Amino acid sequence: MSATAASGGAFSQPRATTTDWIAVLAGMIGAFMAILNIQITNASLLDIEGGIGTGVDNGAWISTSYLIGEIVVIPLTAYFSNVFSFRRYILVNSILFPLFSMACAFAHDLGTMIILRGLQGFAGGVLIPMAFTMVLTKLPKAQQPLGLAIFALSVTFAPAIGPTIGGYLTENYGWQTIFFINTVPSLIMAIALALTLEKRPMQLGLLREGDWAGIFTMAIGLSAFQTVLEEGNKEDWFSSPFIVKLSIVAFVFLGAFIWIELKVKKPLVKLSLLTERNFGIGVLVNVLVGVALFGTVYILPQYLGQVQHYNAEQIGNVLAWTGLPQLLLIPLVPVLMKRFDARYIGFIGISIFAASCFLNITLSADNAGDQFWIPNIIRAIGQALVLTPITAITTAGIAPSDAAAASGLTNMLRNLGGAVGTATLGTVLTKREQFHSNIIGQSITLTRDEVRDRISQLTAYFVQHGVTDPAVASHKAVAAIGQVVRRQALILGFSDTFAVIGIVLSVAAVALLLTRKPKAGGGAGAH
């Protein structure tokens, strides 16, 4: 035993080498960029739609196609990284990702943009679980919380800052520039990974043993399910034959996929991991947190755009206050985890996140960017305390040999949770706006003196401002009142969606307490 080991006690704590840390940090660049690109187009969709000459309804496919590619490839990553070797697989995709991204800037029609965004998502989706896997395989248990904190920064900071970066670039330099932002970071990542990851031979023989039935059914089922989620609200869900047919396809193929995975000797996705208490509950909490993470990044820009008529850059500036504080807070979480039970840190973080949503349930027409400053700061504090302890708890009982499978399953289901959450919140917003519009509309009748007086005032206003026909002025007055009613109903609908997110997070906080306390060090292989 060395003197260093003897002075440190019976056993020395293993430490990751500089080479390992460079590889892990390079992987984090990829995860950050891949997650960033889920949201980076959201604040700029109107500009992109105008640039490629498509309508508002069709523009949603620019985000949908990326998500489909990403969600389908994440569970495939563990298998293909074994076939083609970890190093070769991540390097190829770290090069393809920026190439497909830059190609999007030159798309001149919707079809081309959808294909290129789908391919970009397919390459980017590889980078997320592989970064997670490197934390669990390259870092010793004692250092895994720090690695998980850096990964958490990618998962929570990237969606928050994505619209900020996208909005700024679009307003100042044109929408095409958002697709070039991946170039330099991806180049740095590829060089660092090429220099630090060990070379290993390909195992092409594994292609013969592949769970191809599982791959086929999963790809079709997830693609159909993701499309249903993204397009359902716009198509009024099951009143649309298109959504009904896609739902049947998703149900049949995903059902077949689950059956295959439970029966086959070498499954693509190791669903049996979900029977491990901490992993199963941890994945559930991850899904619920995914609903909130992606949901808040979806709802707040919608509110600022539809109600307050903010442009892309203004929306990004408001959301920045959710992302920036996390840069300072997340690195402190591993220190807290050494002193306190990770379950309680996660519980407090989720509770603070929920509280920030409940602060937004009394929205009014006066709530604009400045009024979201305090809720956004509170949300940033909560989010900073959430993912690192949850991930440590989830992976605590996972053997290193299962790290890649656990990574794929966790990241796929969290992103799927985000997609389900976004679709659900979009529907909640639509239905609650209709509900509040009906309630308010019942009070706006010509039998009420206040309504007649307001119509008279507005009619006089329009006559004074150039409307010569009294009948036209009266019609414009009624329309103006209708717009006020719709705006107020919309504001109340947004308040209700924030309440739903808060309730989802409350369930997640309670569920987290049902896990077993992880051993010190956490992470994969900690038993």
Quick summary:
The chain has 527 residues and is mostly helical. The protein is built from 21 helices and no strands. The chain is globular and about 85 Å long.
Give structural notes.
There is one protein chain. The protein starts with a helix and ends in a 15-residue tail after the last helix. It has 21 helices and no strands. The protein is mostly helical and 527 residues long. It has three domains: 16-210 and 268-434 and 491-512, MFS general substrate transporter like domains (Growth Hormone, Chain: A, Up-down Bundle), CATH 1.20.1250; 211-267; 435-490, no CATH class.
| CATH superfamily grouping of the largest domain | MFS general substrate transporter like domains
- CATH classification, class level of the largest domain: Mainly Alpha
Structural class: mainly alpha
SSE order, as H and E? HHHHHHHHHHHHHHHHHHHHH
* Structural Rg: 25 Å
- Helical amount: over 70%
Multimer state: single chain
Strand count, sense and barrel status of the largest sheet are: none
Number of domains: 3
Number of strands: 0
Ends apart, CA distance between termini: 25 Å
- Report the uncertain regions: 1-11, 521-527
CATH domain topology of the largest domain = Growth Hormone, Chain: A
